[in-house]
């Protein structure tokens, strides 16, 4: 049983190696078409190809390229209305002769919509009517009967991933963009931003650098973060006072009488932008062995504060 399983996997790996070796300028043409598309990318296919098409459409949509799956059977009964002149169609058919897919071609062409074919038969009817043809170059299926789509469906899925990831990178798609499309579940939590969790407004502890330390301690106690931002006359961050700073100051024989915030603060504290990942904030805290970060704007003015407990409470890790 183990050997049979390894044989299937090995056969599919060989299929992917053939796909890799056959990738040519048509792949680049397909990417250019997708990047220049002003509408959406429509994936279509029947049977196993349809299942793969659904997954590829989902991958495109989640990585910055609006995409939908169009079932060829349903398309002929009204769903063709989803196709717009600004769209492109990626039609998947291993043989290139799937009747349901071929039946869509005249109606797609009437709209002037370009077709990218993914097929294992570059001389097929589908290929002949497509602007770009991506050849799977599969020699044989991993199925011992050579009937069930196995190597071909794997190659199609990988080719779809290659298209989506290439387009994503060329678009400059970021982790923050990804987070906006995955707000739920563990993945969504990991991709939450600092601005989703930080404390701002009246919750932000902040004092001037010439503020008496007694008042600074009151501010720290009232806000409950064990720290306060210290700003200059222009409101820009110049330091931070934490419980640790207070202890170190006292241990050195310091007195809070006639002492100002600037005498106790740590200068040039670690900060974070509101648009960074909360996970990045946590990493910075761990790297510098601190528990809070002051959130600053582009002018280095404090706009909030985030505590390690805020991140842990959000179950980001």
In one word, what is the shape? elongated
Alpha-beta content class:
alpha/beta
Distance between the termini: 39 Å
Give the number of DSSP strands. 12
What is the CATH class name of the largest domain? Alpha Beta
pLDDT averaged residue by residue = 93
How many separate helices?
Answer: 15
The helical percent reads 40-55%
- What is the CATH topology classification name of the largest domain? Rossmann fold
- Quickly give the CATH architecture of the largest domain: 3-Layer(aba) Sandwich
In CATH terms, the superfamily of the largest domain is Glucose-6-phosphate isomerase like protein, domain 1
Order of helices and strands: HHEHEHEHHEHEHHHEHEEHHEEHEEH
The biggest beta sheet, please? 5 strands, parallel
**Order of adjacent strands in the largest pleated sheet:** 2-1-3-4-5
The proportion of strand residues reads: 15-25%
Low-confidence segments, given as residue ranges, are none
Compute the number of structural domains: 2
Layout of strands and helices, then pairs:
Layout: H1 2-22, H2 25-36, E1 41-44, H3 48-62, E2 67-70, H4 72-75, E3 88-92, H5 99-102, H6 105-110, E4 115-119, H7 125-128, E5 132-135, H8 151-171, H9 175-180, H10 185-190, E6 206-208, H11 213-223, E7 227-231, E8 237-242, H12 243-251, H13 261-264, E9 266-267, E10 271-272, H14 278-288, E11 292-296, E12 302-307, H15 308-313
Parallel strand pairs: 1-2, 1-3, 3-4, 4-5, 6-7, 10-11
Antiparallel strand pairs: 7-8, 8-9, 11-12
